[in-house]
Amino acid sequence: MDQRTPANMLRLGEWRADHATGRLFRGGEARNIEPKVMDLLFLLAGAPGRVFARDEILAALWPGITVGEDTLARCVFKLRRALDDDREAPRFIETIPKRGYRLIAQADDAATVLNRRAEEFYFQFTRADNEAAMALYERALELNPDDANALAGLANGLVQRAVRWLGIAADAPPRTNLQQALTSGVLASPEAAPILAKAQRLAERAVSLAPDNAAALRALGLTMAAKHRFEDARKFYNHALAGDPKAWGVLINLADIDGMEGRESEAIANLERAFAIMGARYDDAVAQIRPWHAALGAMIADRHRAAGDNAAAEDWYRRVLALSPLHETATAGLASILSARGERDAARSLCRNLVARIGPSAVCTPFLER
Q1: Secondary structure of 14-35 in HEC code, one letter for each residue
Q2: Which of 175, 204, 225, 293 is the most buried (most CB within 10 A)?
Q3: pTM (global) more than 0.90
Q4: CA distance 131 to 121
């Protein structure tokens, strides 16, 4: 088992520091730094923004030993050099004249780093990525068993394991949504029971530790929905949104329940809200949002079209293609609308462009054969 603790790993801007190995990492680069220099970094990172007096730092790094302030100054110099920091325009270590030093960048501990990485895997929604996410959440919980975000993330991974892949052959396509899993009956099977029971225990613990944490509440809501307890799920989703109205994942989950309960207009409204929030937050969470933003827009368009509102559907298909010009579902959807109103050449042109760029496309074949 990895014996590292949150106290000896941290993320600082583009750098990752590992106290146990005495190394700094940035991308594929690794730098070795002296033990006292690493000690200084972790001391300052223990309280970002706090000014550490020189005497306090000397006592912490050289206990029982008398050293001059020039020793500390050299240590600070080496740390700045290792971080590519500039004393005159610091991004990490700031000198406070006649007082001491402080860390001016946010430092994340190891569990936070693992959670962030796990979340990026989770949102890819492949079997391998889901399992990788759960393994990372488990590592975060080894470091901190009371980490509500890791508990919630692991609960989500377990629910996805049951919803998408339980009973599915390795070479077969997964189920793509909760409704398919509920309709198939797999979530009521003996095999699903222990998976969902564990997910519920984890999510309930997350909520007990952080009652207003949107991620914890969403995980518990998802678990309830997988158990077909829609009223309970809706309660937890609404609680999550009360605390974080921009929790786009919660809105998508809520739309799932709306759709299954026949509240299609509410479902579409929640999906449109989620799409707008994802667009506003895109740059801050590219790994989580990029795989699903265009797909969500195409889903909204499909639902408008199914409801008979072709004007809204066309607007959404065009919006998706502005974001993702070669999106197959949006291309085929727009081509279908154009063709239905007699604009067959425009529909054919859309599909020819798609095929010319990405190769044969089954969804476009009907329009090219006309």
Answers
A1: CEEEECCCCEEEECCEEEECCH
A2: 225
A3: no
A4: 9
